[in-house]
TrEMBL record:
GO terms for molecular function: heme binding; iron ion binding; monooxygenase activity; oxidoreductase activity, acting on paired donors, with incorporation or reduction of molecular oxygen. Keywords: Heme, Iron, Metal-binding, Monooxygenase, Oxidoreductase. This is Cytochrome P450. Belongs to the cytochrome P450 family. The keyword Heme applies. Pfam families: p450. It comes from the Bacteria.
Length: 425
């Protein structure tokens, strides 16, 4: 079977990514709890042994030498990006991005690139977009749904992050249909990372086409904005006007940077939205509390990202011989960090299996930690906050639809609920 990038729709692309990273249907929290107590530094590759999902290191990377389950060990690794590097990612997913993918950068190059991109993602910049994000979410998405009194909330969850994110990046807002096309191409890149050789035959070439289509679409916008001498505060305009390594970026570099951000930008927020709404609608008392006190939405998002992080693990490579949790890890070894386990470590969080908005604040690792910590987290939080507020305002007495299957958070690598069916008055 062959599939052309031009024909790919976003739902198909999203579900292809979900299927790729679903892995084995195991009790991941139970397995991790067992490891935390009995083998907190496991010799070997937990993900390959138990979960059967690809890692972003790609098929070429060596298997992991050790897997970490404790909060303190995972944090030690994520915090120290000089000893535990990310450059190997360039051989997997990064191969699609001509090396200009921040996730796969180390050392000085990573610091300089982060400094270049960071201003667009700072809370003060993101907050300038809040009124527009609120308007788009309510007027374009939620208000047209009100009269139906029921929905699979994921029909909304799939689209609103893309719509908001692409505007922030500087894509012209006049044709939202185009955003869906771009987002489906970005997802095709994420789906390329297949273990199954048959699927790899389909998604490998598709990703090749998608990467080229995205490049052409973004480049056209970059060229136009540069010709207009843009001074906007969107990402593309800022990159055009920024200095990088003592000089301006050319059109190819701006295009490649923007393209490299897209796969991280949409579906992580979509999956987090599915988990927030599932955890909230499953708890009517909490729902009532949040409805009456919207200042709790920030904590609701933070607790969701702790309790059910979208990305269950991160991989790093040791740049020298190093000891972790009493185990010697030789230089060059892959180190797998089970974020989903660290976030429920009882040495870090009291009663960790409870979903509790009142718990003592402590950094959970669902947005990562250290130098590679999610650059887009404020954007994601603003979008989610706006979406949850809009739903609580516009869908009175929203609750789970008793006639439809209950939502289920699943996924061995990328977690979320496939559907969230709700009704309202
Ligand atoms: C709820 C939604 C999101 C979640 C849960 C999430 C999660 C993460 C995590 C765990 C990392 C760390 C990766 C690592 O350590 O290797 C990360 C990095 C990153 N995220 Fe997000 N992310 C979200 C939304 C976004 C958005 C909206 C953007 C927008 C562009 C974004 C862009 C990035 C980038 C560029 C990096 C790499 C940063 C670096 O390497 O310095 N993310 N994200």
């Amino acid at each position: 079977m062959s599939l052309a990038a031009q024909e790919l729709d976003i739902e198909a692309a999203y579900h292809a990514v979900s299927d790729t990273y679903l892995g084995s249907d195991v009790d991941i929290h139970g397995l991790c709890r067992d490891k935390r107590h009995n083998e907190p530094v496991m010799q070997g590759d937990f993900v390959d042994t138990y979960l059967k999902v690809p890692t972003n290191a790609g098929a070429k990377a060596a298997k992991c030498a050790v897997t970490l389950f404790k909060y303190k060990d995972v944090m030690t690794v994520l915090r120290d990006a000089d000893t535990f590097t990310s450059g190997f990612i360039a051989e997997g997913l990064g191969a699609f991005f001509d090396g200009l993918i921040i996730l796969a950068m180390d050392g000085e190059q990573h610091r300089r690139t982060r400094a270049l991109l960071q201003p667009v993602f700072m809370p003060q910049t993101v907050n300038e977009w809040r009124p527009e994000i609120d308007r788009v979410i309510r007027e374009e998405f939620l208000l047209p749904m009100v009269a139906d009194k029921k929905a699979n909330l994921m029909d909304f969850g799939l689209y609103f992050p893309i719509r908001a994110m692409y505007a922030l990046m500087g894509f012209p807002a006049d044709d939202p249909e185009k955003f869906k096309k771009y987002a489906s191409w970005a997802l095709a890149l994420v789906a390329a990372n297949q273990i199954d050789p048959e699927k790899a035959k389909i998604y490998g070439p598709l990703a090749g086409q998608a990467v080229k289509s995205l490049y052409d679409a973004i480049k056209e916008i970059v060229v136009r904005k540069r010709a207009e001498d843009t001074q906007g505060n969107d990402l593309i305009s800022r990159l055009i006007n920024a200095e990088y390594e003592g000089r301006a970026l050319d059109d190819h570099e701006v295009t490649t940077f923007v393209r490299s951000l897209l796969p991280a930008a949409g579906e992580t927020t979509t999956r987090t939205f599915s988990s927030v709404m599932t955890l909230l609608l499953e708890r009517p008392e909490l729902l009532e509390r949040v409805r009456n006190d919207r200042s709790l939405i920030g904590k609701l998002i933070d607790e969701t990202v702790r309790y059910e992080p979208v990305a269950t693990f991160k991989v790093r490579q040791a740049s020298k011989d190093v000891e972790i949790g009493g185990v010697m890890v030789p230089k060059g070894s892959m180190v797998q960090c089970m974020v989903i386990s660290a976030n429920r470590d009882d040495e870090a969080f009291d009663n960790p299996d409870a979903f509790d908005l009142d718990r003592k604040a402590r950094p959970a690792l669902g947005f990562g930690f250290g130098p590679h910590m999610c650059i887009g987290q404020f954007v994601a939080k603003v979008e989610l906050n706006s979406a949850i507020n809009g739903i609580l305002d516009l869908f009175p007495n929203i609750r789970l639809d008793p006639d439809m299957p209950a939502p289920k958070i699943a996924g061995a690598q990328l977690r979320g609920a496939k559907t969230v069916h709700a009704i309202w008055d």
